[in-house]
Amino acid sequence: MIKVICTSVARLPAQLAEGERAFTYFKSAKRDGVGTIAKSWHGSLKRKGFRPSPAAWDFVQFCLAVCATDLCAMRSTSADGWTRTIELSVGLHEPLRWNPWKEQLEQLLKVLTGDYWTLIFTDAGVPPPLGRFTTKDQDCVSLLSGGLDSLIGGLDLVAQGRHPLFVSQLAHEDSERQRHYATLLGGADAHYQWSHGISFKGPREPSTRGRSLAFYAFAVLAASRLRAARPTIYIPENGFICVNPPLVPGRVSSLSTRTTHPLFISKLQQVLDGLGIAVQLDLPYRFRTKGQMMNECLDQPRLQALASDTTSCGRFRTYNRTHCGRCVPCMIRRAAFGAWTSGADATRYVFPNLVGSDKSSGPDDPMAVALAVLTARDRGIDRFLGASLAFAPITERPQYRSVLTNGIDELEALLTGDRLL
User: Which one, out of 126, 177, 239, 265, has a CA that is 20 to 30 A from the CA of 285?
Assistant: First the structure.
């Protein structure tokens, strides 16, 4: 079992058990083998006028603790090379509020990361920052990654007369792009851009299934600045990626990311409600493909100007900040541009055609997509989907089935155009 403690510096145990890992919130313990989470961030938030409720602040501490654990716990050391068994001791400001939600949170993390979690809530957290609070003028929060879906989400909200507060997770490749989009859409004072700031010595687990929790933590923190009693947090992601059906039988469970899966979002909403954190999570495009999002975008001129500049690639860093063109996100992107009737794809791809891209390194994603398309074509969409829609209420299954059918159709058009089929 992997054991991790996340605590304030003052409550850090004098000695750690054999094999135990520890992280301190917002301040370095200056001790060998002890990592740090978001150093100096607490003071920065106070200076900027943040005064979140204890419940919202503890949600931030919880999410950052999970992110730190996810990064330091190597999957390669587990029996099957993937599934970890983790005991996480989370220091909180008000831990008693969290105890009734222990099992639900453990299940939520299992959905997200595919691991077995045991959570222990302690009072070793840091109190919330008590800044000189003033509300901001925006009326909702929207996640802004620098990707195409989040750009469309922002464009649509502004076109509808909304005033979103954009929240980004710092990414070396996309930080400037995030700032540019946020300023363009909401002005210079409509954007928070934060990093989890997790530092420690030793190897880092690359799968980072838990990293998205930091994004949700940042969104909840940003929402605490708004005037609305229950602000909406918009998560702009197309429905095909939300559900992320396994393309081939081997890509199941946490091998396919669950970051924006409707089941995960609904479980997260239940926890937030139970903890008394008054925000509403919204997946506005869960019944739309990426191609449909592009065609239905309410600001086509701006989309035409910016779409090719956005980032979608799962291996953007691997190829020196260039889209590879052959990973699943790139193929969905290219397929969406192919379905878009109002513009053309000016993105530069390392592999502009899937034929011949098999000589590159990395998983054979084009073959997985081809097998998925052929399964849906030859044996029907329901055979391809299998149990992928078991999570959905009966009334919503036809809409999820439709978005996944349309998504496969967009991908089939891409593969046919590249003469891979």
Answer: 177
3-state secondary structure of 282: strand
The domain ranges of the chain are 2-122, 140-282, 312-417
Whether the pLDDT of residue 253 is over 50: the answer is no
Q: What is the pTM of this model?
A: 0.95
CA distances to 247, 252, 264, 414 from 371, in Å? 7, 15, 27, 14
Q: Which of 364, 406, 100 is nearest to 251 (CA)?
A: 364
Lay out the sheet containing 34-37: strands in order across.
34-37, 21-25, 2-7, 85-91, 116-122
pLDDT tens for each residue of 205-247: 988 788 889 999 999 999 999 999 999 999 999 999 999 998 8
Q: What are the structure tokens assigned to 202, written together?
A: 């030793």
Residues 317 and 350 sit within 8 Å (Cβ to Cβ): no
What CATH code would you report for 140-282? 3.40.50.620
Measured in degrees and rounded to the nearest 5, phi and psi for residue 226 equal: -90, 155
Reduced to 3 states (helix: H, G, I; strand: E, B; else coil), residue 160 is: coil
Whole-angstrom distance, CA of residue 418 vs CA of residue 354: 6
